[in-house]
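retry 2 of 3: previous attempt timed out while embedding dinuclear copper ion. Reduced batch size to 1 and resubmitted. Inputs unchanged:
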Amino acid sequence: MHIDRLEKRWATVSLGIAGLFVLVILGSAFFQGIHAPSHIETIDSASLHLSGEFAEDKLGVHEDAAGNITVRIVAGRYGFYPQDIVLPTDTPLTFRMVSQDVIHGVHIPMTNMGTMIVPGYVAEVKTVLHQAGAYPLICNEYCGMGHAHMWNNIKVIG
Ligand code: CUA
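retry 2 succeeded.
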C-alpha cells in the first residue's frame, strides 16, 4: 500500500498531538494529583444519614470557632435537605453535598454555585454570594419523574 509522503507527515503530526494530550493528562493526574474537584472524598450513600457529618442534626449551616461557614446538604429524590437555608452575603461559604440515591445536580441561578452530586462522593463547592435575596437551589441533572420539583429555598441576607 502506498502512502503519500505528505499524508504520512500529517499522520505523524496528528498522532503526535494526540500523544501529547495523553501525556499532559497522565502527567497532571499522577504527578500533580489533579482530578475532578467534586470526586475527592467518598462516602457510603446507604448509611450517610446515620452518623458523621451528614447525619440529620448536622445538616444546614454551621459556623466553626474560626468563623468558617460550612453548608451541608443531602440530595435525594426529590428534594434537598434541609429545605430552608439562610446564608450571609460576602462571606466565604463551603458547600458540602451528598446524594442518598442517584446523580443529582445543584445550582443556584445567577451565581457560580453549581456542580453535580454523584452518589458515593462528597461534592464540595466554595463560593461567595454577593447579592442578597431569595433564591431557589435547583436540581439540574435529570433524576427521575420528580426532577422538575426538586429544589430548596436559599435566603441570602446582607
Ligand atoms: Cu434531582 Cu434532578
